[in-house]
Amino acid sequence: LKTTYKEIREIEEINLLIEQGNATLKELGYTEHSKKHAAKVSDTAGKILTELGYGKHKIELARIAGYMHDSGALLAYQILKDTEMSLKDVLVIMTAIGHHDEATGDAVDPVSAALILADKTDVRRNRVQNPVPATFDIHDRVNYAALSTKLTIQKEKKVIQMELELDDEICTVMDYFEIFLERMIMCRRAAERLDCKFKLIANGNKMC
What we know:
Elements: H1 5-8, H2 12-27, H3 35-51, H4 56-68, H5 73-80, H6 87-98, H7 110-120, H8 138-145, E1 146-154, E2 159-166, H9 173-193, E3 197-202, E4 205-206
Parallel strand pairs: 2-3
Antiparallel strand pairs: 1-2, 3-4
Helix pairs in contact: 3-4, 3-7, 4-6, 4-7, 5-6, 6-7, 7-9
């Protein structure tokens, strides 16, 4: 790959887009979509393909797509086509970014599948940007209630498993499913694209 993930992380335009997008979302009361989230999604997407035995090229594409996933597909295309990356690779990344939203997207290849799984399983308390608990919406409550999340890839069993620990004083497992059902269905389909099954364990109970 002529343009690496490390080089992508140093492009000022990409970082400014991520931070400006997050600043806007923060003002609107949405959860965090900063460089920290971008880096976490990138690392997880790379980890998924690495542990399933995919080659370095696809892993690097998944990491780049993970880092840029909230930039928007067309903006990502505009930026990446001016790098030394091949057009074929740019289109793989653009496609993954364009298909990661649960309202319109679906996994179409291993890179997009890894991105979906990495993004939808990033549930954590410090993603809540609203400083007033009394005004939390259900997304804030779910993220704030997340005491721990763990994603494990069991290559031999062909299982991708998410373990979630929720503080049920703040948010019940049913609350979680009220807003995350579509995301979990999307994760299941993404896992299938990687020839795996998706399993969710919430507070010790197998949910799917």
